[in-house]
Amino acid sequence: MSVMSLTLVHAKYSIIETIRIPIAVIGTLVFPALAMLFFVVPQPSVSQDPLFATQAIISMSVFSVMVGSLFSFGLGIAENREKAWEPYLRTLPAPGMARVLAHILSTGTMAIISLIPLLAIGALFTAATVEPLRLVVGLLAVAVSSLPFMFLGMSIGYLLPMKAAIAVVQVTFFALAFGGGLFLPPVMFPDWLNTVSQFLPSRQARDFVIWVVQGGELHPMTWLGLLAWSAILLPVVLALVKRDEGRRYR
């Protein structure tokens, strides 16, 4: 079988494994929707303004994918490293790349599913508007901008044991969410926080998706930052994977 075939098979059973735990699926669907209901819908100045409401939905979408990536990769990999099943998988005649790609595919699929109730709430209870084509392209932009969060989650998972990974992931996603303008729009930030925010991948992902959906000017820091975070974190992940293999399987 080719790497792609093995990836699809592994991703299929990873998704089935997740679905067999209903609370995991419910949490994935409910958490971003509740954030939308608590932070956006009750504010008429935001929810009833088409521009602000659309940007708020985009921010919550980036938040949802970011949280899913950090928790799924950070905690999932850390947990798997402590189980006996992971060493067995490494003995199978399948390349490690297939497992990594399958993890990315299954996590990305669940992340996209988590956006469905979020978009439904936005359509029903806010004045947000978007053209169908821009909506589709916006979803693709969310997927692309999630790469730094996936790589960051993988780094945490391969670097730390489970108990430490839980604390680091929680602190990381709160810092990125607030600092990246996902809960409060950056226009409300003081100058120093706005400057720092522009270097965070969460702010860059938010601005990138807003540009794709609503148009306007794209600051070079946005796309350069996303590329830089991905270029920095990917070698870190590969190095940590190699280190983990050297410590545990040689």
Would you give an account of this structure?
- The protein has 250 residues and is an all-alpha fold.
- The protein contains 12 helices and no strands.
- Helix 2 (22-39) runs antiparallel to helix 4 (50-81) and helix 4 (50-81) packs parallel to helix 8.
- The longest helix has 32 residues, at 50-81.
- The mean pLDDT is 85.
Largest sheet: none
Helix count from the secondary structure assignment: 12
Beta strand count: 0
Detail the poorly predicted runs.
none
Approximate shape = globular
Order of helices and strands: HHHHHHHHHHHH
Mean pLDDT: 85
Going by helix content, strand content and strand pairing, the class is mainly alpha
Rg, rounded, reads 19 Å
DSSP helix fraction: over 70%
Amount of beta strand: under 5%
First-last Cα distance: 27 Å
Question: What's the short story on this structure?
Answer:
This protein is mainly alpha-helical. It has helices at residues 3-19, 22-39, 44-47, 50-81, 85-91, 96-125, 132-145, 147-159, 162-179, 191-197, 201-214, 220-248.
Outline the fold blueprint:
Elements (H helix, E strand, L loop, with lengths): L2 H17 L2 H18 L4 H4 L2 H32 L3 H7 L4 H30 L6 H14 L1 H13 L2 H18 L11 H7 L3 H14 L5 H29 L2
Helix pairs in contact: 1-6, 2-4, 2-6, 4-6, 4-8, 4-9, 4-11, 7-11, 8-9, 8-12, 11-12
